Amino acid sequence: MLISFAAAAFCSEGTSDSAASTRYREQAADGIDTLQKWYNEGNGLYETTGWWNSANAVTVVVDYSRLAKTRRYVWTVANTFHIAQRTSPGFINNFYDDEGWWALAWIDAYDLTHSLQYRKRPKVPSGGSAFRGVSISAWMREQSVWNVEGGGQLRRSSRLCS
After folding, report:
1. How many Cα neighbours within 13 Å face the side chain of 43?
2. What confidence score (pLDDT) does residue 4 get?
3. In this structure, which of 11, 61, 123, 124 has its CB flanked by the most CB atoms within 10 Å?
């Protein structure tokens, strides 16, 4: 829902209803502020969201930051990148789709910040992943895997090429 508020707010620029645009922007800001109340700086994740939904929350923060042209919460993205790996080193676990959500979050984070840390291969325990080997392309599995949950593999691949 926050994403739809943000999209409506930032895509409605230039429309005749500037009051609606202002209202959408305020609602998006309120939504992001509420999301950040659930951020746990100590573990780099969002309370009650679980592992993969925290990746989606990071993506929302990045998208909002880009659209609102603010860096207010970008520190949480960097913090999550460093701290959340204590839960699953290299953002790797036994679920392809979880790893895919994190891949999308870090691709978006790089697009926003141009910080090379988001493009470097994550540190993973030896033998712990099919991601071993290369930089951002490591976010795509070495095996040919199709994520049937919405074509995530295709989406990741297309994001890497853009």
Report:
1. 12
2. 43
3. 61
Amino acid, res. 28: A
pLDDT, tens digit (0-9, with 9 covering 90-100), for 67-118:
999 999 999 999 999 999 998 888 888 887 888 899 899 999 999 999 988 8
Phi, psi at 148, each rounded to 5° = -70, -10
Give the closest residue to 104 by CA, choosing from 47, 54, 34: 54
- Phi–psi pair at 40, nearest 5 degrees: -105, 105
Closest among 78, 156, 140, 73 to 115, alpha carbons compared:
78
Long-range contacts (CB closer than 8 Å, 24 or more residues apart) made by 152-161: 152/96, 152/97, 152/100, 152/101, 152/104, 153/96, 153/100, 155/100, 155/104, 156/100, 156/103, 156/104, 156/107, 159/104, 159/107, 160/107, 160/136
Q: What is the pTM of this model?
A: 0.71
Angle 50-68/18-37 helices, nearest 10 degrees? 140
